[in-house]
Design a protein that fits this description.
The complex is a heterodimer of chains A (365) and B (523).
Chain A: H1 2-23, H2 26-31, E1 36-42, H3 47-51, H4 53-60, E2 66-72, E3 88-90, H5 94-104, E4 110-122, H6 123-131, E5 135-138, E6 142-146, H7 147-155, H8 186-199, H9 208-223, H10 233-242, E7 250-253, H11 254-261, E8 272-278, E9 280-289, H12 292-303, H13 305-313, H14 321-330, E10 342-343, H15 348-363
Parallel strand pairs in A: 1-2, 1-3, 6-8, 9-10
Antiparallel strand pairs in A: 3-9, 4-7, 4-8, 4-9, 5-6
Helix pairs in contact in A: 8-9, 9-15
Chain B: H1 2-21, H2 23-30, E1 32-39, H3 49-56, E2 58-65, H4 67-76, E3 83-85, H5 90-96, E4 104-107, E5 109-118, H6 119-124, H7 135-143, E6 149-150, H8 158-172, H9 185-192, E7 195-197, H10 202-211, E8 218-222, H11 223-231, E9 239-241, E10 249-251, E11 254-257, H12 263-273, H13 276-286, E12 289-290, H14 315-329, E13 333-340, H15 348-363, H16 367-372, E14 379-385, E15 393-396, H17 404-412, H18 422-439, E16 444-451, H19 461-470, H20 472-475, E17 479-484, H21 490-500, E18 505-506, H22 512-519
Parallel strand pairs in B: 1-2, 1-3, 6-7, 6-8, 13-14, 13-16, 16-17, 17-18
Antiparallel strand pairs in B: 3-11, 4-11, 5-8, 5-9, 5-10, 5-12, 14-15
Helix pairs in contact in B: 1-2, 4-5, 7-9, 8-14, 15-17, 15-22, 18-19
Classes of the chains: A alpha/beta (365), B alpha/beta (523).
Chain lengths: 365, 523
């Protein structure tokens, strides 16, 4: 039996490494024995938040007294897990959450964090896109990318070498946004939602008829990319380590970029820029509790200002806008603190149907 | 009860605080052994395994295998591994399909697979310090017969695999990921007609290149291997590394978590492998590029980013590309099998030999088994021997495995009896191969020699060596791959492999069927 208590303690020590051990005072460690261990599964983008020693400490504090052990999974894959072993699921994206809520027949959920979808890119790429009237450098601070123009360019199968000023990026490759696998990961599903809105004459797709009219075009935005990864963490890793040669434009969560940018030895350099799509949409991070302790975690993330502050340090936006404003100001990040032209994704049924149709096209090779 | 817990917990806790505070004892708190299935090119990490253990408390128990073989082995679930560590995970990801086998992956290093051309040729062609060289220009040089190169078998080794994917993508001129329709048959056939040396491993390819450097213009390999070759002092004409403008496929060495419950030691490993200390070691000692951006790329690497080519969406397309390469695009092979049928080969040994040969003629239906079997357009010659060659039997393979049943029937009819005359039989094989080359030079010629004992009839090794050296102008392109089996003479087999530029395969621990499958990468 002792092993069962020993194990979570070891978990904390190992997750945070020696740093945790030193950080947590002896008293806090003793308190931790009263903590309730809870197990959850989350999209990969929030794993660092849960591994943060400050998060571990804040959750360990009264009134929460929680010790969360979190596994990562593609947000759209969570629904296929045997969820009876978990206290909570924390997918990114309302559609992925809706799927779990329906299948588990649960009504309760929390939406503590959200983050806009962005395109991570490089200065030379942004300059080419500016020269071609697709990107605008707003107040010399941040970049806005016109999704209507970009998507038509992509559907015309234009290559980078077809663009004005492409000597800055003389790639013979098609212009495409790199995403994750739309069958498995939320960030790609969000891109699908965004592209479907644009292709449906800037209105939310609501029925089969509208879907059928645009599905081949939508599918091509994914199929033409070739191999895609299952989790948004991997394209981001590639973005940080492989430069624009791997993927000149990567669809990701704003929080991924900001969280890295805020780090001390950040891998973000001055050539890396965010393009804010117009229109864009938010990914809401939805915590679905399966137990009372799961609910307690939801309440902690919703209400505890310390935890919200930590989440902000990880680039996530919360209901507390002031925290986010302070964060980007302190870190001098070229980020708009509020976004206009935010759209909603299509309903769960419509989006799922689109994905199923694309899945079918994948299997046909 | 609770009281007892608390007492235990406090003791454990105090012990733990003590341990974490004390570096040398720290490893004891988490010492675990992880079983790692790794790409064979990662053997060069071995000098660091002790340090890794010291820094993380985790012992990496390494088992080496080729990339595609490894992917298949893990997906089949036949054997348990905690981690996998390959040059890339794309084939693996596609193969796992709906089963979630990869629980986590973190890239550890980068190395593009690129062409390298002898500097004298690069100068002549204006390719030195020229960032605009394209795959199409390379294809042009091959077509004109000016560029003969070495490349590994794409179904056995990742450098060949990556090269084939790059060539397909670049020559199809598709801006998007390849589909089967994009593939231009004639261009590819022409490109691969320049391949004059094949191999089942990237490491052996560079050794074989060094031996045959006078006959070749360059090779395709990892940037890391090519840089090491240039530093080796064994090249008369150093290599100019080319980074084709259309792009290339870059190996990214993901460390993959297979056993979900090993997440903690896995994270410890990842943290150390991505630390500045390890990344710097890896860059300076193995010539792979770091993924940790705080480690600056050393001056030995060219500046600028690596242009990536898209990778196909489906396993079907990938396999189709590979099968097309084997069946239609590459130079066909003529494979000689000199097989010991002396009395000592009776019983289990003969059964094992028959199984191995039947597997190559369609008996192994696994995907790597399908890659390894005899190919369309291939010539296969069997020279079973005891005191001397018993008979010479030629087989031609056609489309869709035509002719393989005949091989199976023939193999199943073999019987073991008599003495062992290895070298007279091998000489016969060389004489046969020499005649065949004169008639049909556009093939790969190779000999597999399998014997379970010591030669006691006919020519001695020394007499064979004398023959080989006298005729070496004609025989030098015919390598012998000896298979160590039973009581074979390892020393002599090593000498034979060295003499002919082949490689010894040890079947004393590994089943014959595995060994023969592996040898196919060299034919």
């Amino acid at each position: 039996m002792a092993g069962r208590i020993f194990a979570p303690l070891l978990t904390v020590l190992l997750l945070g490494g020696v740093g945790t051990a030193i950080y947590l005072s002896v008293t806090e460690q003793f308190q931790s024995m009263n903590q309730e261990k809870i197990k959850g599964v989350s999209g990969s983008e929030k794993i660092e938040f849960f591994h943060d020693t400050e998060t571990i400490a804040a959750l360990a504090n009264t009134p929460w007294n929680l010790m969360a052990q979190v596994e990562k999974a593609g947000s759209r894959e969570i629904a296929s897990y045997n969820l009876s072993n978990y206290d909570f699921a924390f997918p990114a994206g309302v559609p992925a959450a809706e799927k779990i809520l329906r299948e588990q027949n649960i009504k309760k959920y929390f939406q503590p964090f959200f983050t806009p979808m962005v395109i991570a890119s490089w200065k030379p790429i942004a300059e080419i896109l500016i020269a071609n009237g697709i990107v605008e450098h707003k107040g010399n601070a941040y970049y806005i990318i016109d999704m209507n123009k970009l998507i038509s360019l992509m559907l015309e199968k234009k290559r980078w070498t077809d663009l004005k000023g492409s000597n800055k990026y003389p790639a013979n490759k098609s212009i495409l946004i790199t995403t994750t696998d739309v069958r498995k990961s939320n960030s790609a599903a969000m891109y699908l939602a965004l592209a479907s809105y644009v292709l449906n004459n800037n209105t939310i797709v609501q029925n089969d008829q509208q879907t059928d009219a645009i599905i081949d075009k939508l599918a091509s935005l994914f199929l033409r990319q070739g191999f895609t990864e299952n989790s948004s963490a991997i394209p981001f890793q590639d973005y940080l380590t492989m430069g624009p040669g791997k993927a000149p434009m990567v669809m990701m969560y704003e929080a991924q970029f900001l969280s890295e940018a805020a780090k001390e030895n950040s891998a973000i350099n001055s050539d890396m820029v965010l393009l804010y799509p117009e229109p864009t949409l938010f990914t809401k991070h939805v915590l679905i509790p399966f137990s009372e302790n799961g609910s307690k975690l939801g309440e902690a993330l919703n209400n505890d200002e310390t935890l919200q502050k930590i989440a902000t340090q990880h680039g996530l936006r919360t209901q507390n806008i002031a925290l986010f404003r302070n964060f980007i100001k302190n870190k001098k990040l070229p980020v708009p603190d509020s976004l206009v032209n935010i759209i909603e994704p299509p309903s769960y049924e419509v989006l799922e149907k689109m994905i199923q149709k694309i899945e079918l096209l994948y299997s046909q090779g | 009860m609770t009281c007892v817990y608390s007492a235990i917990m406090i003791n454990l806790f105090i012990a733990l605080m003590f341990l974490t505070g004390c570096e040398q004892l720290e490893q004891a708190s988490s010492n675990s052994v992880l079983k790692v299935l790794a790409g064979s090119e990662l053997k060069d990490i071995e000098p660091m395994l002790e340090t890794i253990k010291k820094q993380t408390g985790v012992t990496m128990e390494m088992h080496y295998i080729g990339t595609l073989d490894g992917a298949e082995k893990i997906v089949s679930g036949r054997e348990h591994y905690d981690l996998a560590w390959f040059s890339h995970a794309k084939y693996f990801s596609l193969l796992q399909d709906e089963n979630k086998i990869i629980h986590s992956q973190e890239k550890i290093a980068l190395s593009p697979v690129i062409p390298a051309v002898k500097t004298s040729l690069a100068q002549q062609w204006g390719w030195v310090n020229n960032p605009d060289v394209t795959w199409s220009q390379i294809a042009e040089k091959i077509k004109m017969g000016e560029f003969k190169y070495a490349m590994t078998d794409p179904t056995a080794s990742n450098s060949g695999f990556s090269t084939v994917m790059s060539v397909q993508a670049a020559l199809s001129n598709a801006g998007d990921a390849l589909t089967a329709e994009d593939i231009d048959a004639d261009k590819l056939k022409s490109f691969f007609s320049g391949q004059s040396l094949t191999s089942g491993s990237s490491g052996w390819l560079s050794e074989a290149y060094i031996r045959d450097q006078n006959k070749l213009g360059g090779l395709f390999n990892y940037e890391s291997v090519l840089m090491k070759m240039n530093r080796s002092g064994e090249l008369q004409d150093p290599l100019t590394l080319i980074y084709p403008k259309e792009g290339m496929v870059t190996a990214d060495y993901p460390l993959i978590l297979l056993a979900k419950d090993k997440i903690e030691p896995y994270q410890q490993l990842v943290a150390y492998l991505k630390s500045a200390e390890f990344q710097t070691w890896m860059m300076t000692q193995t010539d792979r590029r770091p993924v940790n951006t705080t480690v600056a790329l050393s001056d030995s690497f060219p500046k600028g980013y690596l242009m990536d080519l898209p990778f196909p969406t489906s396993i079907t397309t990938v396999n189709e590309i590979l099968f097309t390469y084997l069946d239609d695009k590459r130079k066909p092979s003529h494979s000689y099998f000199v097989l010991d049928l002396s009395g000592s080969m009776g019983g289990d040994r003969l059964v094992a030999l028959k199984q191995a040969m039947v597997n190559l003629s369609g008996g192994d239906s696994s995907i790597t088994g399908q890659f390894a079997r005899f190919r369309n357009r291939e010539q296969v010659t069997f020279l079973p021997f005891n005191q001397d060659v018993i008979e010479i039997r030629d087989f031609s393979i056609g489309k869709n495995g035509l002719g393989m049943q005949k091989i199976q029937d023939y193999i199943n009819s073999l019987k073991a009896t008599g003495g062992t005359g290895i070298y007279s039989s091998l000489k016969t094989a060389y004489q046969q191969a020499r005649l065949a080359i004169e008639k049909d030079p556009e093939r790969f010629y190779s000999i597999v020699l399998m014997s379970d004992g010591i030669s006691n009839e006919g020519l001695s090794y020394q007499q064979f060596e004398q023959y080989y050296r006298q005729e070496s102008d004609y025989l030098a392109n015919i390598r012998t791959f000896p298979v160590l089996f039973g009581e074979a003479d390892q020393q002599e087999m090593d000498n034979l492999a060295r003499l002919t530029g082949g490689r010894v395969f040890d079947s004393r621990k590994d089943p014959l069927s595995h060994v023969f499958k592996k040898i196919r990468g060299y034919q």
